[in-house]
Amino acid sequence: MNTIGHFQYVCMKTNRFLSNADCSPLKKMQRLMHTEHNNLRKPSSRVEPVPARRASLACVAALLLAGCSGDTHLSFLDPQGPVASAQRWHFVEALAVLVVFVAIPVFAITPWILWRYRYGAKSSRYTPNWNFYGPLEIASWAGPVVIVVLLAIIVWRDTHALDPYKPLASDQPALRVQVIGYDWKWLFIYPDQGIASIGVFALPAGRPVAMQLTSATVMQSLHIPALGSQIYAMGGMVTQLHLQADRPGRSLGENNMYNGNGFHQQRFTAVAMTPEGFDAWASEVRSSGIALNEQILKVISQRSTRAELNAALSQPRSPDGNFYFSGATAALFPAVVMATMGGTMVAPAKAPQEPANTAAPAARKPAAPATEKVQ
Amino acid sequence: MNLSDILQQPLGRMSPESLPFWQMLHDPTEGNVINGVIATGAASMVVIGAIIAVALITKYRKWGVLWSEWLTSPDHKKIGIMYVVLAFVMLTRALIEAALMRSQQAFGLGGGFLSPEHFAQLFSTHGTIMIFFVAMPFLTGVINYAMPLQIGARDVSFPVLNSISLGLTAAGAALVMISLCIGKFSTGGWFGYPPYTEASFSPGVGPDYWIWALTLASLASTLSGINFAVTIYKERAPGMKLMYMPLFTWTALCTSIIMIFAMPPLTVATAQLALDRYLGFHYFTNEFGGNMMHFVNLFWLFGHPEVYILVLPSFGVYSQVISTFSGKALFGYRSMVMATTAIAILSFGVWLHHFFTMGQNANINAVFGIASMLIGIPTGVKVYDWMWTMFRGRVRFTVPLIYSIGFIYLFVLGGITGILLANPTIDYQVHNTVFLVAHFHNVAIPGALFGLLAGYHFWFPKAFGFRLNERLGMVSAICWIFGFMLAFFPLYALGLMGLPRRSVAYNEPSYVPLEIAAFLGAILLTVALVTLVVQLWVSIKHRDENRVFVGDPWDGRSLEWSVSAPPPEYNFAVIPVVTGRDAFTIAKEAGNAYQLPDTYADIEVPKNSAMGPVLGAIGLALAFGLVWHIWWMVILFFAAAVVTMIVHGFARDTNRIVPAQQVRQEHRRWFDAVAAAKAISREDERKSANQGLAEQALPGVPA
Ligand code: HEM
Ligand SMILES: [Cu+2]
Ligand SMILES: [Cu+2]
Known about the structure:
heterodimer; A: 42% helix
């Protein structure tokens, strides 16, 4: 069995995982195209296990991203999970209250006043010294008070209901994921599966995900709008986030907190799969992923975009810019937290692209802490 | 650092590579050339602008005048005007940067023409400048100009301190301008969160430029706050109770109090960051017990109240403008005062809404979310009371009123999106997206900038003795309002579509149309600013047709309108006695607005002082030395600052006397003009017939 066959097999499998995503006409068209493309690639025979790691990586990659970016869900207004749908509802609810009770009255009454009491309108009543009228004053305070009380109730209720730290109610146990923010990529670790990924965050649809986050560098913010809340990731600290996808599909994931030149490229795709699909994906990655060792971690911790990381990793390169790792353990995440806190983490070896600034340290005596950190 | 280091590195860490065109010459890739050309162009504009200014002043031999009439003047009116000039200069730069960012994003699908680092410097300088060197100096200038006149005072309580505040603010602004020419500014945004801004992640001079510019600005604002608050407490004319003060003075008071309490946390936070960067402390580092969250808390303990420092004075301007141009007393004065003070107090209790996403528990988030919404109550009351002020009035659509109407509409929208953001659950979605960018511009531009522009149009005739061109003013106002809508409404949609703020580029084709709309909006805003400049030029040219020397072009209600335009340096030949709100209107209605006193007295005014410009220059040099680690400069100018202050402490003879004779002469000359002027009805307000004398309606007969 050759590598191509393997490739085709996995491709087909993923498209199946994704097969029941919703969609607009445009998306439908794209889906049709995918189907065709699939048919062309029917596996000819049984698949042999892992003939060439490089090609398998290509598979995992291709199945996830190839040509599908048009299908990516961008917004919580197009929610793909329970948190984002609740947020959409809350957004609409609060907006409606404000538009109906604040905006519309002001927008309607103001032009009327302006017209009726314009300078030229000599027949309209003119009361130059009229500056107080109790009932109107009371109404002016009471209106906003009532609206705010109403909204406060909603806030109290929803802030507790949608607390990102609160586990989601479900009859299934949550999938554990540990997320480490590096400059400029997110590393997703699945400790129970023993795998990790960069550029892609795979999750089983219908099952909650319990995330822990930290940063190996500066402050970052993990956000998958179509799935739910964002939360900061900070060095030496751990934050939590609970999300869930309701159905298979892709969603945009990003970093919302500026952290340098590659910030805008610190994106990923959250890919919700069928539970079987997810298991298949996990075992695929387990058997064909790059082994996540010291060496590789060191390369990952450099300041680099995914493309730069791809170039820096000497061996198996990824054709789509995503990376799949095997051999990830639960020990890695706490180790990074501790290392960052203790100050032994590798500070960006590749200094920021500021020639004016990097030139000097050789000449002057650099401030003490900077050198301590760059161990 | 020891002596030999200092001697070996007389220029600190400065090198030819610190010049903006260095990289382009040494590594002329296409990207480097584009960015180099833009950076060099910007630097040249600064340098050439400075050279032209110096040349013109020299050519017309104005150095003496500049020094003795302006820079060293302790007169609050001149200081106010210089503040506003500074604000306009910096507004020009920040607006060009904004337009550049918008054009980058319009072409940002998959790349654009700016490098990420260049873009990051743009949003950092734009934000820093707009807040600290446009909005703050503008409002400080307007308060400086109008507030002492409104309360019937001769000057602020500490005139020299006032001049020092101006000097320090200008030094901060100059430092940001210098960063264009040598070295690079911070890329950490206007709030400069560590650990990104720590030495290990940003080793260059950028964050140091930011730190010292903010330090200068925050010290200046703290001092201004103290100065204004003391002035309002101590210098009011006899009879002016607190509850007789014009609303603008009330907002000035509340803003000053916020300045006094909110600026120090910023000074402390940036000082701690400086200690981290210069001396290896660990306040905000990841490691060794540092915690970045302390910075975030301190910063927003300043940052949220800062928002109200920015909008309250404009609320005051709107109150004056709406009441004046509706020909009607302000409705609900007491409510307005209560609302203003309530906002000032509440503003200190909501800072956490800037980081709902930092992982605190739901109780805390909910409490701060609700606290934030509470501010909506007094703000809502204000909007209603402005509406009721126009109700049953005679509304004249002058330029300031157009800004006010634009404000009422747009600010309601900004308030609504603010309340949305105060919902932690919604904030979890739109925080740090361009939705947030749209929101705070929606508050800052209509809420702060429009008000200050309205104030500029309103008080300009008072300050310079002639009115601004109405037609161009109108064109500009319309461009500001619609330009704002076009530039920022699309960002709400983009934010909901998941575009993070500070993105130099993006991959979603669906963003492009909205980005292009926003870009067109930025162009319209640029047109608005250019129109303002043209308007000023045209107005100066036609100044003789629009003179309002008598001083009351708008049938004003508060005391500043009761004196000549421009007012004498001592403001009031005779200090007025106040018997109620809208003191000048009361006097006009009683028919005793213009009266000759029997006798005139000598008036004591502060002497000129070089402390402001000198301390400003020293502050700038000290900050520059710190930025570049030029230690001899730091030591020298630190010593100079200390010595200057001590020496000033020995200055005893700081006042001079304007003799009664001169006061009498000036007052008589004005009085003759009043007598000669023809009172006009509001119909002719915007014609050259307006000499600044308002016709009074006969009691009982509607105007
Ligand atoms: C007048 C027209 C203006 C335009 C076209 C404009 C445009 C922009 C743009 C494009 C950004 C970057 C957005 C991003 O991060 O994606 C920005 C950021 C910002 N602007 Fe403005 N702006 C204007 C006026 C103002 C004013 C009046 C203020 C304040 C008084 C202001 C304060 C800020 C601040 C604080 C930031 C954030 C900087 C940061 O990210 O750290 N802007 N503006
Ligand atoms: Cu705030
Ligand atoms: Cu806000």
